Amino acid sequence: VSTLPAVRPQPRLSTPSSARVLGERVRFHRQELGLSQEDIADLAQMHVTNLGKVERGQSNPSLTTIIRVSGVLDVDPAELVRELGLDAIPARAHRLTATDLIRERSERER
Predict the structure, then answer these.
(1) Whose CA is closest to 16, among 65, 79, 86, 78?
(2) Which residues have a Cβ under 8 Å from the Cβ of 15 and sit 6 or more positions away?
(3) pLDDT by residue for the chain (110 residues), tens digit each?
């Protein structure tokens, strides 16, 4: 039984690890179906070079692209982005969430 590629801690790369993981998952499902990149790209109405970039983690596909590709692969889009969180994207100046911001604001108002 094949298992989906998991999120692995990686050193910071020029390509966000989220894009790499998404690409690995797309490739995994495509290969499980025994289809070529050309087949999937054609069915998803996208250029094969763009699908190749997605699979190599070299692009940050739009939500529309993720949904199209997942539909062609007959997999829930959530499966492709499962467990991808803030730690899987490039570092940013702050690590606050909306909940953190609300909590900070309410503490300042006291």
Answers:
(1) 86
(2) 57, 58
(3) 556 666 544 334 345 589 999 999 999 999 999 999 999 999 999 999 999 999 999 999 999 999 999 999 999 999 999 988 777 676 666 777 889 889 989 988 88
What single string gives the DSSP state of each residue in 31-58? HHHT--HHHHHHHTTS-HHHHHHHHTT-
pTM, two decimals, is 0.72
Of 31, 8, 22, nearest to 57 by C-alpha is 22
Q: Report the 10 Å Cβ neighbour count for 23.
A: 23
